[in-house]
Amino acid sequence: MTENFPYSLQSPKHTSDRYYRDIARFADRWLAYSRQTVAALITDFRAFRQSEGWVDRSFEACALELLALGVLLREHGRQAANLPGWSAWLLSKLVIFQGQWPGAEQVIKTIRGLITAAVNDTAAQQGVFTGEHGANPEDCLLSEPAEAVARLIRWLRAHDELAQAERFTAWQEYLATIDTMQARRVIRQSLSLADDFARESEPVLGRYTTGVESYRAQAACRGCFRYDIELLTRTRLEYHLGLLGTEVLNRVYRDRFEATAQKLVIVPLCLRTPPEGQDCQAEQTALGARCRSCNAVCRVNQLTRLGQKHGFLVCCIPDDELGKVCLASGQAGRGDLGVVGISCALTNWSAGWAAERLGLAAQGLLLDYPGCRQHWHPQGVPTDTNLRQLQALLGRSMPLAAYE
């Protein structure tokens, strides 16, 4: 799969078991390293949160935020600094309108794509992406640390990364309360954490992301007017962040998830395999599409049958509609509902942040490779996920041999 898709967790034997062993060990090492390097900073940040009356977050949760901030500043700080104010405002409004007016979704996405293409074309002509003009990017980040984070937040909102933008707002406010020298040290530590992560993740996680560079090049050529071009051209380091992020957040949310009485598994549309020559026969419900068993080899059908035997629900929801469905169905804020969300490496980890914002106790499970027509593949191909890992997340003892 790696030659066709940006990442694949599967081995030549078509299983992702090795990946889950690798990421667990890597996360152990990374968390131990972060305790050695940024413990004092995280302690100070957590004290700031408490002084503001905000709910405390664990060391692991805050360390992941600091790493994500450093990675995104490294990868997109220059773009964020050069995003015109008018386009940031308009793109952010269009993201809001897209959620409010589902009937106009495709038109709004087209407009977003045109604006993004125009902005990127202008930036390319000015040498923004290549660094041909302007100051050293790190100097720009360090000159006004709180403003650099504010610009990143604005860029994230313009590209519909609302959960990430909201998460970094607390860091922006924290930077604004300390003096400039201290704020610069925070940004340096964040960037250093990102650099160390880039170096250490490559030999472990790089084997699963060998297709990223070729995929980025293809996406840039065929999709310059796409609304999701920023997603499709994310860097290899951002994929590694996504892989680590899902593992760390599963640990952060684990106790709360295990305490829930009811479990819901949310699967993406690309996990379906409709009967040949027919459309998927799933029934639409308040919680999303429910499988009607139209194809025995469909992964969603198999998961649904497992759920019927072992006491969990399975619903099929597009990856960008979790919040809307949960709110409409009354699930948001329910303390007795645990959700396992299945999605691709770039979206799964921040979906955990979105679920927390909705009051849902969540666990994340990765697609072994991305293949949806909406984003990743021109025709769309059925994807897959690891049923053993799902079993581990749900804490259920399930016979899997018949489904593999």
Task: Provide a descriptive summary of the structure in words.
The protein is an alpha/beta fold and 404 residues long. The protein has two domains: 17-248, no CATH class; 255-403, no CATH class. The protein has 17 helices and six strands. A four-stranded parallel β-sheet has the order 4-1-5-6, with helices on both faces. α16 (345-357) links the parallel β5 (337-343) and β6 (361-366). The protein is globular, with a radius of gyration of 21 Å. The model is unreliable at 130-135 and 397-404 (pLDDT under 50).
SSE layout and pairings?
Blueprint: H1 17-37, H2 39-51, H3 59-81, H4 85-100, H5 105-125, H6 137-143, H7 145-158, H8 162-177, H9 180-205, H10 212-222, H11 229-232, H12 236-252, H13 254-258, E1 262-267, E2 283-285, E3 288-290, H14 299-310, E4 312-316, H15 322-329, E5 337-343, H16 345-357, E6 361-366, H17 387-394
Helix pairs in contact: 1-9, 1-12, 2-3, 3-6, 3-7, 3-9, 3-12, 4-5, 4-7, 6-7, 7-8, 8-16, 12-16
Radius of gyration: 21 Å
Number of helices: 17
For the termini, the CA-CA separation is 18 Å
Name the strands of the widest sheet in spatial order. 4-1-5-6
Based on DSSP secondary structure assignment, what is the total number of beta strands? 6
Write down the secondary-structure element order: HHHHHHHHHHHHHEEEHEHEHEH
Strand content: 5-15%
Question: Can you tell me the number of structural domains?
Answer: 2
Oligomer: single chain
> What structural class do the secondary elements suggest?
alpha/beta
Q: How is the main sheet built?
A: 4 strands, parallel
Give the fraction of residues assigned to helices: 55-70%
Q: What number is the mean pLDDT?
A: 86
Overall form: globular
Question: Uncertain regions: pLDDT < 50 for 5+ in a row?
Answer: 130-135, 397-404
